[in-house]
Amino acid sequence: MPVITIVSGIFCNKESIVNRIAEKAKYQVVNDDMIVAKAHQLSGLSEKSLQRAFTSKTSLFNNFTHEKERAVAWLKLSMAQFLEKDKLIIDGASGLFIPKSVSHVLRVLLIGDVPFRIQSASRDNGLSEKEAHVMIKNHDENLSAFVDTLFKSNDPWANSLYDMVVPVDKMDEEKIITLITDHLTSDVIKPSGESKKAAADFSLSAQVEVSLAKEGHAADVFSREGNVTLTINKNVLLLNRLEEELKTIAGKVAGVKSVDTQVGKGFYQTDIYRKHNFEMPSKILLVDDEREFVQTLSERLLMREMGSLVAYDGESALSLISKDDPEVMILDLNMPGIDGIEVLRRVKQTRPEIAVIILTGHGSEKDKDTCLKLGAFSYLQKPVDIDVLSDTLKKANAFIKQNQMKTK
User: Fold this and answer.
1) How many CB atoms lie within 10 A of CB 143?
2) Distances in Å between the alpha carbon of 57 and those of 14, 67, 138, 158, 340?
3) H-helix or E-strand spanning residue 380
4) Domains in the chain, start-ordered, CATH in brackets?
5) Cβ within 8 Å of residue 238, ≥6 positions away
6) What is the mean pLDDT of the chain?
7) What are the φ/ψ torsions at residue 231 (nearest 5 degrees)?
8) Measured between alpha carbons, how far apart are the two ends of the chain, in Å?
9) Which end of the chain, N or C, is more open, meaning fewer C-beta atoms within 10 Å of its C-beta?
10) What single-letter DSSP state applies at residue 259?
11) 408 pLDDT exceeds 60?
């Protein structure tokens, strides 16, 4: 039987429509949370980082971590494994992962105009007009960002993405359900040999993307009957070396017959291709009010393939931590406003998993004892040898990974 994917604007009666179709057609519902949960089981990535792939919020560290690209790779693999079954309703944005070449999928968009959605929000959820506007705006922005990630287009309502666009503000629910279920008997979307092959190609592409992600790489992957094409979208100096490395990784995936590489449009932009180094932290927050020093330190870390963000005072650092997920903080003690010891204390109270390295030129032995008792990973004095700092960062990264393994 065909698969149904349903993407919807918020407050478009999706829940009722999905449940009634599932009951009428005897279909199983698979939603985004289920796709995320399976991806979490497969990858070990946190559900938070996987869910972030569906939103407009990209980590500020993403250029160094490829976090979103890794999340998308695992989510695709999760989706591909669910797609091995039939009689499914894919409820949510996850359905957009399935390529158009998989033709035994009925792709449905449920959408209504904003006044209708506001009225629905008020009637069904008791929201004010202002609250509904905010929620509609946020939902639409997140869906637009997700579509942009997949298709380099930020129009989630584009007709080209769907087989059926249903105006829920102009049709009653009974007619919508009949319209969708009647289409399930169409010869156009009946499972065929070619469509099943396309689903297998999708699965193989996802497996290759995951294999690349495991090695710290990110590339667009296309597969057709075991013949894989990798597209490099960021500039790299040693292109031939990168191509050979990607081919070697992809070639080891079961089912891959051949691997070709090409450069995409993004290759000619100013972005630089970076392989993620799993031995070193790539989400480092530098907190120091000495601007010249901290900017130089950031550049030196970048030369060693470590990504960092800079905050010039404690308040800015705490604000950034509340919005993002740094792994390591390199923290000065003497700063205007909130000093380093107070920042350390607050970080360890709210985000104890962050490894905090104190790097100061003015601390005393008493300060050192206080910092270590509060949970600082290490205490270093300025000026610090970059190799010593790099070794400390490597040890901090190992410590973080060890703790993550314990909590699984």
Assistant:
1) 24
2) 24, 12, 11, 22, 28
3) strand 378-381
4) 3-189 (3.40.50.300), 218-276 (no CATH), 284-396 (3.40.50.2300)
5) none
6) 93
7) -110, 125
8) 37
9) C
10) E
11) no
